[in-house]
Amino acid sequence: MVEPADEDSGITRPGRVSAWPVFVAVGLAVAEVGIVMEGLYPLAVAGLLLFIGSVAGIVHEAGYVSRPWTLLGALGLLLVLAGLLVLYSVVGLDFAASLGSEQTVTIRGWAILGAGVVGLSGGLAGRFVVDTRPAIPE
What we know:
Number of helices: 4
Strand order of the largest sheet: 1-2
Radius of gyration: 20 Å
């Protein structure tokens, strides 16, 4: 939303600035560092959660969705599928055998899968707990 500062000067200034793009960028960068660097997998989970939460927030703020919870759950489901795909590429269908594995790719797959499960759970909790609470009278 851009509003003219002065009709005669032609200068425009932003009407409102959002902080979401910063969180999207930071979440993606933190997730990349956590996934690529060995041993920083909790950082990968936190970065992925920050990224998908920020994407859901920015889409909600832009007015494309009425509530961010469904999108958050869908992005969490995409991370679950991506984590399963990474695990499948290494161990096939024997996911239980990869639990004690020291291979970095399987640990990365579990980190992505874990972030997806938390994101999916957050989307479900928001949809069925937060949105169903009675409104507080003012």
